[in-house]
Amino acid sequence: MAIEIKTWEIINGQLKQIDTTLVDNGRKEKEHLEEWIKTSPKIIGEDIFIIGEQVQTKSGFLDFLGIDKNGNTVIVELKRDKLPREVIAQSIDYASDVGSWDLNKLSEICLSYAGQDLLDSLSEQFDEFNLEEVVINNNQRLLIVGFGIDESTSRMIEWLSSNFNMSINAIILNYSKTSTNTEILSRTVIIPEEIEIQKANKKKFTIARSDIPGNYDKEKLKELVKKYLTKNLHSSRRLKEFILPFLLSVKVATRSEILKELVRQGEAEDERQAGYFMSLVSSQLGHEWKDYLRQIIEYSYPKYEWEKDNFKIRDGYIELVQEILSELKA
Questions:
Q1: Residue 160 and residue 181: Cα distance in Å, rounded?
Q2: Running DSSP on this structure, what letter comes out for residue 231?
Q3: What is the rounded CA–CA span in Å between residue 176 and residue 18?
Q4: Are 57 and 71 in contact (CB under 8 A)?
């Protein structure tokens, strides 16, 4: 059914209905509503951190892009008035593009909006957040926010949620201005928030991790490593162009030394950014099925059980790595 929120003010022991709107009080979606949400994103969800505003997609600009504590991206579309049924298709269209974005693109958006990279932002926002235990953008949550909703839109949302386990929800806001000019913004939701979050995490999986090296013969190993290093991934490119050449030039390289090398070669602006890049590479090295990378690269955990350090090319594989890099360069 359609949802309507009404507010009453108690004046001299009597209820007086407050019947006012954003428009009546000169409030606008872009200038006021968006600013209010930015100051307190909890109004759209307890576990959502906003990383971008007016983010361009292939289908237009989405109002807010967020990430929750489980790594799901959150597409937030705002409407100053009642939510039309078309907003559902619009949000799904945005999500179909956002779902293809990798960690580096999301980090660039976050850096531009929040002034720091995604890893640092999420670590500060959510306690015990560990990038190596979270799959970023494995699923997308859709939140449409407005000041009313008709029966057909509400019915479609409930149908998509119930029958397709889609993580979609509508947040209905109510703006009120009291007799003392106090402005109040209240909310209700179509789907209980805990159920909507549960649906988003049903598809969530944990990446299998390992420190065990592979045991391939050299021809097969060469094939697998070359295939990985030619992938269109930032981490594989950094491994090919900077990290492996550096490891060939030294016996053992600490994580700190690799960060300095990334900065020295201009790949990172500073060691903080280089540390983020190295975390992504370390995560790739720990994927269980990438045992071929661990067959040529050795590392240890001298400081923390989650932070790889003391990297080196394994004995017996230096010439193979030189040969691979030479062929790729040619």
A1: 40
A2: S
A3: 6
A4: no
Helices 271-286 and 255-264: crossing angle in degrees, nearest 10, is 120
Place of tokens 């937030």: 76
* Residue position matching structure tokens 């994103």: 41
Give CB contacts under 8 A, 24+ apart, made by 322-330: 322/248, 323/222, 324/222, 324/225, 324/226, 324/229, 325/240, 325/244, 325/245, 325/248, 327/226, 328/226, 328/229, 328/230, 328/240
Distance from C-alpha of 209 to C-alpha of 255, rounded to nearest angstrom:
20
What's the Rg (C-alpha) of the chain?
25
* pLDDT tens per residue, range 28-65: 555 667 777 887 888 888 789 999 999 999 999 999 99
Contact 170, 144 (CB under 8 A): yes
Q: pTM of the full predicted structure?
A: 0.59
Work out the number of other CB atoms within 10 angstroms of the CB of residue 231. 11
Q: How far apart are CA 118 and CA 103, in angstroms?
A: 8
Q: Is 6 exposed, middle or buried (0-12, 13-18, 19+ CB in 10 A)?
A: exposed
**Within 10 Å of residue 95's Cβ, how many Cβ atoms?**
22
- pLDDT tens for 266-286 read 998 888 888 878 888 888 898
Measured distance CA(166)–CA(169) in Å, rounded: 9
DSSP character string of 248-298: HHSS-B-HHHHHHHHHHTTSSSSHHHHHHHHHHHHHHHHBTT-HHHHHHEE
Can you tell me the distance from the alpha carbon of 259 to that of 255, in angstroms, rounded to the nearest whole number?
6
